[in-house]
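Comment thread on ticket #2218

A.B. wrote:
> Attaching the input chain for the structure job we discussed in standup.
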Amino acid sequence: MVPDDERASERKGERARQDDERADGRRVRQLSTGHTVELPLDCEFTMAGALFPASAESLATGLPDRLSPVRVAPRTGALALVSIEYHRVGGLDPYDEFAVIVPVVADARTDLPGVQFVGGDLGGWVHWLPVTTEESVALGREIWGYPKEVADIEIEERAGTRRTTVSLDGELVVVLDVEPVEPRTCDVTTAVTRKRDLTLQSYTELDGDLLGTRVALDGPLAVRPLSQRASVSLGSHDLADELRALGIRNCSLGRLYSSRTEARLHPGAAVL
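C.D. wrote:
> Ran it. Output below, let me know if you need it in another format.
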């Protein structure tokens, strides 16, 4: 029998062989769907999201050992729900996405709120990532291990609120309502909108490895902490029950909004 570590090395070698490196250092990857993308992947999107409190203990049960949920209180973590409309994604057709992300710290030395970040790396564990096209499923799963699947995602503006409805097999999973953040600069308890140059870290698992992926954002991004103008409701699908099991509460800790942001997703790297 071939040891697990040898199998992992073979899988990594196979992934490396799938990438053709160009003279400018960018990699070219052909997906199982036949589509070709370049890495790092450049994209442009509109998004609206909110952060909700959830059970830190329940969140921790679904995380790899090296990741701990960010604590906003001793027993409380957070869950980010983000609705995204991709206008440009490499050479793929535009698609919609709904991200369920657990804010985490890698290699935290303590679970104490506020002290977790000392000696640890902040990022987001991608818990679930429904999308609207098959090629975007292949893109996320094959390159980064993102837990994507095709779902029905409806995004609409209604009465000053951006509503996102996600269904699977005709059964409702989740509805997210977020009031767009007005583009003004105020103190930290109100909206702050400015052109941001941020680098975030997302975590996934691929072929048994914990991967960290750098996501560089460039563009206007509005953040309103301590905002209640976002809400979530869960449906009857089994995945809705999974979200309920995380102890999510319908009282938002903050919301974010961007009318147009650019991002660059780098190839994932094993977290050592």
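A.B. wrote:
> Thanks. Noting for the ticket: The CA atoms of residues 34 and 135 lie 9 Å apart.
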